[in-house]
Structure prediction request, 220 residues.
Amino acid sequence: MTRQKADLLQGTLDMLILKAVSLGPLHGYGIIQRLRQMSGEMLEVEQGSLYPALYRIEQKGWVSSKWEVNETNRRAKFYALTRAGRRQLEDEEASWDRLVLAIAKVRQTT
Amino acid sequence: MTRQKADLLQGTLDMLILKAVSLGPLHGYGIIQRLRQMSGEMLEVEQGSLYPALYRIEQKGWVSSKWEVNETNRRAKFYALTRAGRRQLEDEEASWDRLVLAIAKVRQTT
DNA sequence: TACCATGCTTTGACTTTCTAGGCATACTCG
DNA sequence: CGAGTATGCCTAGAAAGTCAAAGCATGGTA
Prediction:
């Protein structure tokens, strides 16, 4: 299928997840909601994208997870940013800034 | 392997190619050089990424190609932006701007 | 002659994301 | 009590894009 306008670009999802979790431990479903809210309804992450990403990110040691009971009395797996995750977030943000800058340079070339 | 800092994000390459070609018809090898220059040496597109992308983009009708002889007396396939390509470039730039904005919003959330 | 820069192409692997489901539990409302 | 809805996690399969690493050919130069 053709890529939809709202779709994420490969490589940005990890940064967004890490950023969302950096504001406090959160479970998967909540991450989707928080990202939607943080982006002003501009981003809608699919569950089928999020959960594999969370697994991947946890394997890399950037988040840790714990089963807990949330505020509505349901079991949910809460993810928290690790120290390595914070470093990774900073790295990814720096890379993102570089890319945005590089593309801006290309675009302003006449 | 881990993604390198300088790597492109999937989905941005088409926009960059279209932009490079929008400044005048150019062959593949030259596109790489022009993009490197336009980005202030920040972007280095691999040949193995560029040529498949050019093929894809031509299939979609966003560029047309013609074998010609370049200024150094070598045969080279020159790509030119089509009308549809210009529209596509505008669309991709708008999508890019939206994504950059959305991510900026996420990042400025405290 | 040998080499180097230019120029196009292909192959295979890899990663990420999306679509499209399935499964389970808590709560609410008729 | 029963049905529906929102919440919450997970997986399989496919699609797509990018990269690394090659190969091949030609023109100019030492």
Remarks:
- The first strand of chain B starts at residue 26 and ends at 27.
